[in-house]
Amino acid sequence: MKKLIFKLIFGFIVLPASLAGTLFYLNKNGFFNIQKIDIVLENPTPGQEQFLKPNVDALEAALAKYKGTSLWHIKLRGLSKEVGTFAWIENSMISRSWPSTLSVKVRPYEVKLLFMSKNGKLIPIIKDGSFLEPIEPKQAPDVALLDGDSFAKKNELRKKAVNVIEQIPAEGSFSKKTISEIRFDDKEGFWMTMIKTGIRVKIGEDQVALKAARVSQVVDYLETRQFDARVIDANLSKKVLVRLRKDP
Length: 248
Fold this sequence. Notes:
Layout: H1 2-28, E1 36-41, H2 49-63, H3 76-84, E2 89-97, E3 101-108, E4 113-116, E5 122-125, E6 145-146, H4 149-153, H5 155-166, E7 179-185, E8 189-194, E9 200-204, H6 208-225, E10 229-233, E11 241-244
Parallel strand pairs: 1-3, 4-6, 6-7, 9-10
Antiparallel strand pairs: 2-3, 4-5, 7-8, 8-9, 10-11
């Protein structure tokens, strides 16, 4: 009976007190002070590294003030709110990595399109049509540029443009990679300009994926026959109209 009581006392009082004392001693002597802040990007979009790097650097600089602070004293909820103020971050998860690392896992927004402001700076656009902070050209990801003042004023129009570009394939003769600019006309819908040839493609607003496939076939045909087109009108019910550069 005495042995049982001794074991209970040791297990429930002495051992926890000893452990608590050890942790208190280590904490007081800086064993748990943050030495490293590990920022990890979750599923970053390929080709957007030049956009993300300065943003990650800015986040790292903002969090540097927590180095030397004990992990025990860090309030993760408050830190999460602080990280959430960075507009380029869609979601984040912060955790303690014992004994001395603060782990910050962030999911960045993908830049879908760009808009050039009047002062010449490029403004990234995300999936809901919202603007992020302006960036320098060297930071710009390889996405199409929206052209027209109406995009500056109307978030819904930017969101509609994102929806249209998302229906266009990532690869192919007519794809996201081949489009340099996107314009919008109230009567005709969306127009796109191809990078290599300068061909203007009238795509409209509906059945974009189907029209894009048709345009891709037409572009392949034009290249095979060495025709020099200036306009491809895909905004028709069942056919695609091509205007060559020599046409009126």
